[in-house]
Prior knowledge:
This protein is an all-alpha fold. The chain has six helices and no strands. It has helices at about 1-15, 20-30, 35-60, 70-80, 85-120, 125-144. The model has no long low-confidence stretch (mean pLDDT about 90).
Amino acid sequence: MLFAGALIGTLFSAIPGLTGTLALAIILPFTYALEREPAFILMIGMIGGTIYGGCLTAITINIPGAPSSVCTTLDGHPMFKQGKGAQAIGLATFSSFMGGIISVIILFIAAPQLAKFAIKFGAPEYVTLCLFGMIASSLCRIIC
């Protein structure tokens, strides 16, 4: 399921304008027939695939396939025009793989402590968190 999700996500995100959120919205009804674990693993694979798949069009045609691939257009497409497209895609693949591995390791280490902290949240903490989110988004809107 992880491989299938990554493949579907990569193919979906290689089309400019189609994002990981849209891919999840489209695949969600199909996951209802699955058990919880395979459905969750499929969706995790899709998110990873969509983050990587956007770099393919960012490198080749200078149009990011996903919002996370915007910066890839700055270095990847000039490399592609110089005839180093395979090297650019290889570097993007390696970077995406290493970023995924490192983030999974950090998640395994930090998740138990975060879960213990989150369980202690009560109503005052949720209100404070909501207010912080609204204030932060308002300030961002004002500044930008």
